Recover the amino acids of this structure.
């Protein structure tokens, strides 16, 4: 397996992880909203923290992937 194929595989895995973190954030936000309406304020607070952390992970991961995709383009342009 070439280094290029390995990098492509890692990029695909990283993208899947980012998409999963994004989904977890959305799910946690929805659950937080439902639990707050049910009067379970402390559980809603925990879910909001989970949602925030998952959102940060997803945004950071997508930013890293974007930067990694731009890097080969920059080196090819030189």
């Amino acid at each position: 397996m070439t280094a290029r194929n390995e990098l492509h595989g890692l990029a695909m895995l990283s993208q899947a992880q980012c998409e999963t973190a994004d989904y977890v954030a959305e799910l946690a936000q929805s659950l937080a909203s439902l639990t707050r309406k049910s009067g379970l304020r402390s559980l809603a607070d925990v879910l909001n923290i989970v949602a925030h952390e998952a959102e940060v992970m997803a945004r950071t991961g997508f930013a890293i992937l974007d930067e990694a995709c731009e890097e080969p383009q920059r080196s090819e342009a030189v």
User: Anything to note?
Assistant: The radius of gyration is 18 Å. Residues 41-77 form the longest helix (37 residues).
